[in-house]
Write a structure and sequence with these properties.
- By secondary structure, the chain is an alpha/beta fold.
- It has 15 helices and nine strands.
- 55% of the residues lie in helices and 12% in strands.
- It is globular, with a radius of gyration of 22 Å.
């Protein structure tokens, strides 16, 4: 079993005298920067000159400079911009300005795992990966809690990379919940697999299919939206708090019985696992990464067409109208941070 770390294992004093450059001020970037500053750390923000987040970070009271200048000034640089642009930003603005003894950090291992970023041997490379969106990382910290995090060490040039990584995660509040030790490879492959087969790809396709079956059978689209999409959060909240058994305890026996007799009909177990293994194989051997890298180099034609197609689906049109009409439309817990 992988080791878990907590506040007692972390020493924020390790970060004293060190300047931390947060590259990016979107969902994760703003949360890391604000939490670290509130923890007493010396934080600057590195952004593209003239980018839309520049003024936001300045308004929040940070020193903001270009990524190149932030790298020159910092001891620890954390990459919190989108995976698909990290390699180019690293090559142009970070790599030429790294000093021996610096630490380069990531919240996801994609670019390290697939060789898009290859740091010099004389810098530490670690991962500080909250298992939750940035707005939750911030709101939990403000509330005196924290979001569980992953920690991984790819390079330990200083011999103290783990101490620095744990201190960093404590600074964003993760040690309050728990820090699970992993590797860049394991985090990347399991994260991509979970997103594609369950959390995003699998769940989205499941919701869409359920919605379509009900509407095609003549049921009201609004009712179909509530049953197959809106209520999913309520079920996941139960699983999050008490596991699947706890969820089953909270729902009706009728619903639980339906889970046992109909779930396997929708998802034949052996067939589902075989398909999932194919997805995992593509992740492990780099096939998926290669396609995604090529997609970004070639104008994102497929990506943009699928995004537009989804936006025009009746499920999304009905859902937007319902959310606009409901009292929960102004839910302050939604992530509205700019990227």
């Amino acid at each position: 079993m992988a080791r878990m770390y907590y506040e007692k294992d972390c020493n924020l004093d390790v970060l004293k005298g060190k300047k931390i450059a947060v590259v990016g001020y979107g969902s994760q970037g703003h949360a890391h920067a604000l939490n670290l500053r509130d923890s007493g750390c010396d934080v600057i923000v590195g952004l593209k000159k003239g980018g839309k987040s520049w003024a936001v970070a300045e308004k929040d009271g940070f020193e903001v400079c270009t990524v190149a200048d932030a790298t020159k000034k910092a001891d620890i640089i954390i990459m919190l911009i989108n995976d698909e642009i990290q390699a180019q930003v690293y090559k142009n603005d970070i790599e030429p300005n790294l000093d021996a003894g610096n630490a380069l950090a990531f919240a996801h291992g994609f670019n390290i795992r697939y060789g898009q970023i290859v740091p010099p041997a004389d810098v530490d490379v670690f991962m500080a990966a909250p298992k939750g969106p940035g707005h939750t990382v911030r709101s939990q910290y403000v509330g005196g809690k924290g979001v569980p995090c992953l920690v991984a060490i790819e390079q330990d040039a200083s011999g103290k990379a783990l101490d620095v990584a744990l201190a960093y995660i404590a600074g964003i509040g993760g040690a309050r919940a728990g820090i699970l030790e992993t590797t860049f490879r394991e985090e990347t492959e399991t994260d991509l697999f979970g997103e594609q087969t369950v959390l995003c790809g699998g769940v989205v396709d499941l919701m869409q299919c359920g919605f379509e079956v009900l509407v095609e059978a003549g049921y009201d689209p609004q009712n179909a939206y509530f049953e197959c999409i809106h209520e999913l959060k309520l079920i996941i909240d139960l699983v999050n708090k008490a596991g699947i058994s706890g969820m089953n305890y909270s729902i009706s026996d009728t619903a639980e019985y339906g889970e046992y007799v109909s779930g396997p009909r929708v998802f034949p177990h052996d067939e589902l696992k075989a398909n999932m293994r194919k997805v995992l194989s593509d992740i492990q051997d780099g096939t998926f990464a290669g396609k995604w890298i090529a997609e970004n180099k070639n104008g994102r034609t497929f990506f943009n067409s699928k995004r537009n197609q989804l936006a025009q689906h009746e499920m999304e049109v009905v859902g937007k109208r319902l959310r606009d009409e409901m009292l929960w439309k102004n839910d302050s817990d939604l992530d509205t941070a700019s990227n």
